[in-house]
Amino acid sequence: MIECSSVKLSFIVVLLLSVAPWCVAAGSGDPVPNILIITADNLGYGDLPCYNSASPIKAPNLDRFAAQGARLTSFYTASPTCTVSRACLLTGRIPQRHGLDYQLPGLAGNYGVGLHHDEILIPRVLKNAPTPYETGCFGKWNIGFAKGSRPTERGFDEFLGHASGNIDYYHHIYGGKHDLFKGTEAFHADGEYSTDLFADAAIDFIQRKSGTKQPWFCYLPFNAPHFPNAKNKQLGQPNNWQAPDRAFEAYGASPNETDPKRRYDAVVTALDEAIGRVLNAVDEADVKEQTFVFFYSDNGAFRLGRKGLDVGVNDPLRQGGVTCWEGGLRVAAMARWPGKIKAGSVVSEPLWSPDLMTACAELSGAHLPDDRVLDGKNPLPVLFEQADSPHNSFFFIYRNHAAVRQGDWKIVREKPDQPWQLFNLVSDLSEKDDLADENADRVAELERGFKSWQDSF
User: Fold this and answer.
1) What would the mean pLDDT of 26-37 be, rounded to a whole number?
2) 3-state class of 311 per DSSP?
3) Do 376 and 406 lie in a common domain?
């Protein structure tokens, strides 16, 4: 009987491994993978040529990224604003659970506690993996910078970046205060372009850590292409989109270009170049085949009608950041892992940012916290095997806006006292045709789900 049981057990193990190749860290014999998560800041869904063939933006490296891996067309951020979306990514939890459901305001907000210290972040989970990870964060933090809230106090071994939601790209100022740090100490690099600073720091980390026996986790949240803000400028400095001269040259333009859209395009091209350099560093370190790379924008481009600022493009989606229309929530996203993710594939199944916490645990073999509710599910079967989405519904609230997506259908409203509008996202991705009147039963069904979800907190 013992012999027979052993044979059966061996057969089951082989069967499980054959049908679940995404169980990378569960005894497959492969090296524990490195993890690189890259985020853009307010990048439009329609800004990149690989999402919108009409886009004038030059982004060859992200085009190459998409060709080498999977381009996700139904990936959602859990909140349409910077602070909240980052908290959701790093905790695997929606705002209604982690409590940071608003944009951190001003110096007091950005240098305050921010995300509650009881929340467990991805790097902390990876530190407790069977093979602990080396961890680094390079770029925009924006979830609190008081003592105990800073990256190196929340699971990251290394940090180079800024506390706030947006800095001057060259002088690294937020609200009149110097806002660039290495670890917890002020770091001065005046005149250096922030996108390049963060990429260089990530490249240095990848090069150093790829030569060790430990896997690494690199979180690279770029500040670009966030819009400029006059309060972050030096006296007399113009409040315009900032890019290095070489990015303007790509368009045959001068660094003195006055058109805001062309200046914005140069910012995205500089971001694309930086991402390309980071990906090249992974390749040149000879760890491409053992590195899971994920890229997405924290929310959609803002479309608030501000002259010279709201120039990003979310086409064909409606509206943009800080709204629960698709343009605020559905974002450009890509994943790459040679041999695991099919090159040139397109993933249309809905996934969202809290899934990345679960993905990191699956990849590393780490245990997820069992003392709290997590809202992410395992996205790896979708990315590796084109499986169905593990999600039945997505619920969103930001300020007065709310939305529910269930299958092909979505209800959305801009104020709590307004009726729900209903859209079929397969036939009407732009949310132009409100079908609520002729589908009252469906609206009522989705509304019941929304109320039940609200009542669960």
Assistant:
1) 80
2) coil
3) no
Cα 71 to Cα 40, 217, 272: the distances in Å are 15, 22, 16
Domain boundary among 392, 414, 434: 392
Whole-number Å distance between alpha carbons of 97 and 357? 15
CA atoms within 13 A on the CB side of 242: 24
Nearest C-alpha neighbor of 299 from the set 320, 318, 313, 319? 320
User: Residue 437: inside a domain, yes or no?
Assistant: yes
Give the pair of three-digit tokens for residue 286: 């000879």
Quote the number of domains for the chain: 2
Share of the chain above pLDDT 70, in %: 94
Strand partners, 405: 394, 410
Q: How many CB atoms lie within 10 A of CB 430?
A: 15
Distance of CA 398 to the CA centre of its chain: 17
Report whether pLDDT(253) > 80. yes
Two tokens, residue 226: 């966030």
Mean pLDDT (whole number) for 74-80 = 98
- Looking at per-residue pLDDT, the higher value among 132 and 11 belongs to 132
Mean pLDDT (the chain) is 94
Two structure tokens written together for 155: 């699971």
Tally the C-alpha atoms within 13 A of residue 432's C-alpha that lie toward its C-beta.
7
69: in domain:
yes
Looking at 373, 392, 411, which one is the last position of a domain?
392
- Output the pTM of the full model: 0.94
pLDDT digits (tens, 9 = 90+) for 181-205: 999 999 999 999 999 999 999 999 9
Percent of the chain with pLDDT over 90: 93
Specify whether 374 is located in the same domain as 425: no
Half-sphere exposure of 332 (CA within 13 A, CB side): 28
H/E element, 256: none
The two structure tokens encoding residue 87? 């908290």
Residue 16 lies inside a defined structural domain of this protein: no
Same domain membership, residue 386 and residue 406:
no
Same-domain check for residues 407 and 361: no
Identify the CATH number of the domain in which residue 189 sits. 3.40.720.10
> Any residues with CB less than 8 A from the CB of 12 and at least 6 apart, and which?
none
Is residue 2 situated within a structural domain?
no
* Domain that includes residue 413, residue range: 400-457
pLDDT tens digits, 389-405: 999 999 999 999 999 99
